[in-house]
Amino acid sequence: MKQLEKFLEWGGIRKEIICLVLSGAALLISIFNLAPLPFDASWIAIILCGVPIVLEAVIGLVTAFDIKADVLVSIALIASIIIGEDFAAGEVAFIMQLGGLLEDLTVARARAGIEKLVHLTPQTARVLEGEREQVIPAEQVKIGDVLRVLPGETIPVDGVILSGQTSINQAVMTGESLPVDKEAGDEVSSGTVNQFGSFDMKASRVGEDSSIQRMIRLVQSADAGKAKIVGLADRWATWIVVTALCAAVLTWLISGEILRAVTILVVFCPCALVLATPTAIMAAIGNATRHGFLVREGDALERLASVSRITFDKTGTLTCGTPEVTAVRSFRAEYTEQDIYRFAAAAEMRSEHPLGKAVVRCFRLRGEKVEQPEQFQMIPGRGVRARAGGREILAGNPELLEETGVPLEDGCRELAETYVSAGCTLIYVAIDGQPAGFLALADALRRESPGMIRRIRELGICPVLLTGDRAETAAAIGKQLHIDEIHAGCLPEDKLAWIGKYQEAGEAVCMIGDGVNDAPALKKADVGIAMGGVGSDIAVDAADIALVDDEVKELPHLLALSRRMMLAIKCNLSFSLGLNFLAIILAITGVLNPVVGALVHNAGSVVVIVHSALLLGWKQKKKEPEEKESITCPDTAAML
To answer: How many CB atoms lie within 10 A of CB 639?
Structure first.
């Protein structure tokens, strides 16, 4: 059905092009008398381009009493024919349809970047049933099914790799240009492409719950027709139709020249006014799409343009959302920081705790091989005990050391406290019954966050940090990002309260978050922006805009784009109104005839469409290069 709808849509555009080509040729034949015909060639343009306009106007009036541009255009067409101005009637119809085609093409181009996602939906999947492999439609895959993905195939559903190693092109979901290596235990997303090796996976999210389907639902909800300012333009168009009729009748009665009255009807058509807003919004949506945003609500960009305060959740938004080893310190001269790191990674090798896994992962990222422990014991709520390299190793919290008779000296506690106050979580390491050092872990700040906050400030928008984290952690992040207003320890209702307080003070607020706990705040804010990659389904559904690839560095561009869009709309409206009134004065005084009036008026529509289309390629000018990296805990740069 979707393919049929698309075929009909593009078939309609091709039909418009054919009609315009034939009509244009007919108008040339008419004005230059190029071929002897038993009738005026302009009638070809009237029939091919004018009849559809008249039919739409009649249907709108009869079914919904909808008075819009088509009504005035139809009156102008009929009046021109009555007074014998066949060429003017054909020209009006031709240029009106040309303007409509330009609008369709502008909208189609704006949506092109979004609709590419729909084509990424995999059609089939290889399901394994024992040793048997069966190819079935992707929508029939169930949670728990074991699938096999071959090189070059698109992953059909979300899942976890069971066996095999490969590289995945995740550009559609994350925007990464290089493939990402994957192995057993790694998660993969539907719509991404398997580059090299084959692998088996277990389906975890299928059908409408898969990543690619979630993105498609966001795409389908993008609708510029919801913008409030579009409704305003429509209301203006209705009044303009009534005003045009009155002006035409009065001019006819006063001057006695029906030609002037018809010219007024021709130039008074509010086409440029009606096109001014939707074309700008759709072009801006297309621009936002190419920068990783999916706009779910048509008026979201309009509301975003008036935002004066932007509130951020911390985890997963300003930070990566995963713990990283940011510093290693040794208490004893016989152990280097490298030794502490190596022993800790060996002890945590078999740990299932997220912090333990983070230690092993970060150690491996340095290109180091983790030593397998000879013995391992998990101590719930405390840490781990292991034997590796002939040493007895403890890795965990202070309670673990105290309960095992390993005292921490005051100097060690003071050194550790500097990292705790900076928002870090510590894993203490003891070797052979003696405190040896610690590892500091923190939710790593996104590299682009400092530059993004700076650019937001340059736009005159005040950033605010709303987080459920400890005050120390929030203060450390705020200090690095130069965010002065910080509210820590916030529950969902606290975030709602703060946003409501700002709104009561007359400020428009934008909220950016990723978790389930952010969903109420995303709904409460004037504009909610969800992290589409790491964000929860509930947060994405609650937001007006989704940032698909989680590249927060693009947020200043979106904010600036919304303001540029509103400027374009105001310029379009002012230009169209000014041109209309100028043309009316010239028509009343008899300077313009219907033919020239049609050219002037419809040229205005083309100018509005072209001006809106410029938003597709608009980019915010950057004053300075962005910061490339940041420090999450003290002395991180000196670590190892």
So the answer is: 15
pLDDT score, position 437: 93
The Cα 546–Cα 539 span in angstroms is 9
- For the entire predicted model, the pTM comes to 0.65
One-letter amino acid for residue 417 of the chain: E
Burial of 101 (0-12, 13-18, 19+ CB in 10 A): middle
- What is the separation, in whole angstroms, between the first and last Cα of the chain? 59
Reduce the DSSP state of residue 93 to 3 states and report it. helix
Please give the C-alpha separations between residue 111 and each of 146, 280, 487, in angstroms, as whole numbers: 36, 13, 39
CA dist 532 and 541 (Å) reads: 10
Query: What residue has token string 């015909």?
Result: 37
Q: What is the mean pLDDT of each run of 10 residues along the chain (640 residues)?
A: 41 76 88 81 89 83 70 78 82 75 58 50 85 89 93 90 82 52 86 82 86 60 46 62 83 85 75 75 87 80 93 84 86 91 92 83 89 86 86 90 86 87 86 92 85 93 88 84 89 85 93 77 87 61 78 91 94 87 85 76 80 89 51 38
Dihedral over alpha carbons 139, 141, 142, 147 (to 10 degrees)? -150
Q: How many CA atoms lie within 13 A of 102 on its CB side?
A: 24
The CA distance from 280 to 589, in Å, is 34
Residue 408 falls in which region: left (phi positive, over 0), alpha (psi -120 to 50) or beta: beta
Place of tokens 């101590």: 379
Q: SS3 of 268, please?
A: coil
- Per residue, the 3-state secondary structure of 137-148, as one string, reads EHHHCCCCCEEE
Q: What pLDDT score was predicted for residue 387?
A: 93
Which amino acid is present at 21? V
**How far is residue 148's CA from residue 135's CA, in Å, rounded to a whole number?**
10
- Type of residue numbered 61: L
- Residue 223 to residue 285: CA distance in whole angstroms: 9
Q: How many CB atoms lie within 10 A of CB 338?
A: 13
Which candidate, 568, 578, 598, places its Cα nearest to that of 278? 568
The residue among 382, 402, 404 whose CA lies nearest residue 392 is 404
Q: How far apart are CA 203 and CA 158, in angstroms?
A: 6
Question: Token digits for 409?
Answer: 């000296």
Bridge partners of residue 187, in order along the sequence: 160
The full length of the chain comes to: 640
- Tally of CB atoms within 10 A around 380: 6
Phi, psi of 370 (to 5 degrees): -80, 130
Determine whether 313 is an active site residue: yes
DSSP 35: S
Let me know: does 175 contact 549? Beta carbons within 8 Å: yes
Q: What is the pLDDT of residue 320?
A: 80
What per-residue string of b and e applies to 612-624 under the rule 16 or more CB within 10 Å gives b?
A: bbebbeeebeeee
Interhelix angle 271-290/69-82, rounded to 10 degrees, is 140
In the prediction, which pLDDT does 8 show? 37
* Whether 272 contacts 100, CB under 8 Å: no
Measured at the alpha carbon of residue 574, what is the angle toward residues 573 and 579, in degrees to the nearest 5? Answer: 100
Q: Which one of the listed residues 70, 145, 158, 313 is annotated catalytic? A: 313
Q: What pLDDT score does 224 carry?
A: 44
Return the structure tokens found at 18: 């054919």
Structure tokens at 329: 């310190």
Residue 181 exposure: Cα atoms within 13 Å on the Cβ side: 2
